[in-house]
Amino acid sequence: MAQPVDSQAVVRDSGAVLLELIGRLAEAKQYLKVADQEARKAELDELAANPDLWNDADAARGITTELGRVNADLQDFNTLHGALEDAQVLRELIAEAQASGEADQGLEAEFNTSVADLERQLSSLELRSLFAGPYDEHDAICEVHAGAGGTDAQDWAEMLLRMYQRWAERRGFSVELDEATAGGEAGLLSATFIVKGRFAYGLMAAERGVHRLVRMSPFDSQHRRQTSFASIDVTPFLEDVSEIEIDEKDLRIDTYRASGAGGQHINKTDSAVRLTHLPSGVVVSCQNERSQHQNKARAMQILANKLAELQRAERQAELDALSGKRTENAWGNQIRSYVMAPYQLVKDLRSGEETGNVDAVLDGDLDAFMEAELRRQRLGES
């Protein structure tokens, strides 16, 4: 026979969680530098109110963008602070009702739900403390490449592209697909896409590396188990890379007809552009714009970002902080394994994060893996 639920015990447990949340929010106020942000907001408000602001459009956009982010951060913190105060008042009302012998189960249920929701909101706020890199808030240029495994690897590359598209959709980010090269029989040889949203680079950088898939191959006539590999490379997208000068004499420019896997990924045009920067060997392509001129302009922008990253890496000792280690896209170098047969398991080999719900992960449920890796990296730095 099921034991009756002690509602007072449940409320006491939620009350203890509430006290913990209040302490965590006080800590968050320190590491999120709320006082500094409030001071910065006052400065930005004054600058934004200047009637001559838009005389310099670039500077104005920078000010208004920063002001928007500061306002959003402060609003998130203040909203959570107010919600915690409301929960405290609710807890006191419940305690008074219990003391008078007039317990209200409706109030208790509302309190428990409120505390659980506050815990989720605070965890999301705390995630921002993990972003310490200078480019973490930027958009991310991402490339997926099929590795060892033949047709299965090309299909796996396409699955990864879809996984990140679904993840971005879950977070309210947008994805701009700039290039996709179809595989011989199925899937993709490679694709370049830009994830746009605040902290897109900080989050996607945690995915950089080789990803391994184990499954019963749909391309094998005997349906044998197959291991295949695909890699993800990530670069911060910077609108202003004016310090990078690209001499067209250093470029090999190839034009070709755009194509994709059944037209699923891109708009077909006859104006695709591939740029090869001869001194560095960096190759970028774009085929999603309407004209060859637009594709070339977008490819040049992506190339400038990649060259800027190489330049930063040369200036700084921490090459891996931006570019990551370049490893062979094959066995022994994977950062994460996705096993679909003979059992179901996704396991990150760096953080140890794992789940048996492979379908959910492939459908974009990646936050737990990204956060675990970001926390691992932060612990390693401290």
Short summary:
The protein is an alpha+beta fold and 382 residues long. The protein has helices at residues 7-31, 34-48, 57-99, 105-127, 150-171, 200-204, 292-315, 319-322, 358-362, 367-381; strands at 139-146, 174-182, 188-196, 209-216, 225-237, 251-256, 272-277, 282-286, 334-339, 345-348, 354-355.
Keywords, please?
382 residues; Methane Monooxygenase Hydroxylase, Chain G, domain 1; Alpha-Beta Plaits; 2 domains; eight-stranded mixed β-sheet; three-stranded antiparallel β-sheet; 10 helices; 11 strands; disordered N terminus
Total beta strands: 11
Structural class: alpha+beta
Query: Could you name the CATH topology of the largest domain?
Result: Alpha-Beta Plaits
Q: Indicate the low-confidence ranges by residue numbers.
A: 1-10, 261-267, 317-323
CATH architecture of the largest domain: 2-Layer Sandwich
Measured by DSSP, the beta-strand proportion falls in 15-25%
Radius of gyration: 25 Å
Helix content: 40-55%
The total of helices stands at 10
Q: What is the total domain count?
A: 2
Q: What is the CATH class designation of the largest domain?
A: Alpha Beta
